[in-house]
Amino acid sequence: MKIHGVLLAAMLLSGCGTLQTVVRSDEAAAASLKEQKSYCGAVPRIYSGVTYDFCTLYAPLKEGIDAQKYDNGTIVVLIDALISGVLDTALLPYTIYRQQADGSIIVTE
């Protein structure tokens, strides 16, 4: 049972919106959202993880994917958004500084 918990935590953290936007480069985060064909044009750095997760949530499904088979995907993204919210709150001093210094992460150009 422990292994399932560790695997779930690893999967959530690897796709965690906060890690995607704070730790990775702006170009990598933007490329990831472009690849998913997200409707988001920019991601503000303050609470960027939560914003990234919702941009992912509202991206269209890839062609050939049956939406009914992936109903649980929404729950995973919402759990990830909750974790990102906690991490984003802890990182507020840093992300406020980065927002002032660098502005938002631009996705569409």
UniProtKB/TrEMBL annotation:
InterPro entries registered for this protein in UniProt:
DUF1375
The answer, when asked if Lipoprotein is one of the entry's keywords, is yes
Q: Which named protein is this? A: YceK/YidQ family lipoprotein
Q: Which Pfam families match?
A: DUF1375
Superkingdom of the organism of origin: Bacteria
Going by the UniProt record, its keywords in alphabetical order are: Lipoprotein
